[in-house]
Design a protein that fits this description.
75 residues; 1 helix; 2,3-Dihydroxybiphenyl 1,2-Dioxygenase, domain 1; globular; alpha+beta
Length: 75
């Protein structure tokens, strides 16, 4: 982590770019790895209704919301 004295917005929620997303393989295992490293998620992994896709959100230390998904990217 890089220390900074620059004041940052508390979150990107509602801004022009609300969040970024990454599609990963085996989302549940990836989430367990993040939690083991002390990273807090904004809820649990959820199945996207009507799809095979799964999703969970987290916010990084700079306030950027990150959507982690599985099964959204084309194969």
């Amino acid at each position: 982590m890089v220390p900074s004295t620059t004041r940052r917005a508390p979150t990107t929620r509602g801004s022009s770019i609300d969040h970024v997303g990454f599609d990963v393989e085996n989302l549940e295992a990836f989430v367990r790895t993040l939690e083991a490293r002390g990273i807090t998620l904004e809820g649990r992994v959820q199945q996207v209704p009507g799809t095979r896709a799964k999703s969970v959100l987290l916010t990084d230390p700079w306030g950027t919301r990150i959507d982690l998904t599985e099964g959204v990217a084309p194969r």
